[in-house]
Amino acid sequence: MGHHFSERERQIIYRVIRERRDVRSQFLPDPIPSEVLARLLRAAHHAPSVGFMQPWDFIVIDSLAIKQKMKAIFQKENQKAAENNSGERNDLYRRLKLEGIIESPINLCITCDRTRGGPHVLGRNSILEMDLFSACLAVQNLWLAGRAENIGVGWVSILDQDDLARTLQLPPDVYPIAYLCLGYVDEFGSQPELQTKGWRTRLPLHELVHHNSLGTPLKEGVLKTALQDQESLNT
Ligand SMILES: Cc1cc2nc3c(=O)[nH]c(=O)nc-3n(C[C@H](O)[C@H](O)[C@H](O)COP(=O)(O)O)c2cc1C
Q1: Distance of alpha carbon 175 from alpha carbon 128, whole angstroms
Q2: What is the pTM of this model?
Q3: Which pLDDT value is given to residue 163?
């Protein structure tokens, strides 16, 4: 096969992408074997990065004391976040489960060291945030690898950055990109949980694809038809 993926392999990777879920409710206590966790971390480490900067570090957390601190940070922030909604929306927000910090066997913080590689990283002259974007790609690699290993991953972002940094002893130049909960699950939802619970639905892709400039919709034609056809098949 050389460097070509077969049709079957292609189908599998699209399936992993489609069936990846943000998980927070369905964690099982089963431990993640070290070799599996190592594969996930290696997948993350193989993410692309600006100038091959590899700005990430991975903090593997299994301490209940740290998880409890993080949960308390979440609860404080989530209380504030809930107040952004009123009426029925507020009730719905409060019913959503938005983290699985304690139940998941492993929490993982992926950070971005903004000084890695020195002051002149190739490709990072004009847009300094490129290091942050690179670290996000490590998160996505790990998320997809997790799905392929039948491990659920949930991103918890309702956290105060300073409290989080203090708890994990991050120095000032290290930015916490993602606080993740990892574990085996009893099921992966077929749709995003926010969709299932009536919070928000997936936008139609063909309305998000533009032609030559933002705001110019796709002309009727092969690409638009293909996008709509796939949408109707839910693929
Ligand atoms: C940057 C980022 C931050 C997120 N933060 C949270 C969070 O704090 N709590 C939560 O329940 N889900 C969080 N999510 C998960 C999203 O809600 C989820 O990705 C989205 O609803 C689509 O669902 P899916 O990932 O299952 O496809 C986050 C996702 C991203 C990419």
Answers
A1: 13
A2: 0.96
A3: 98
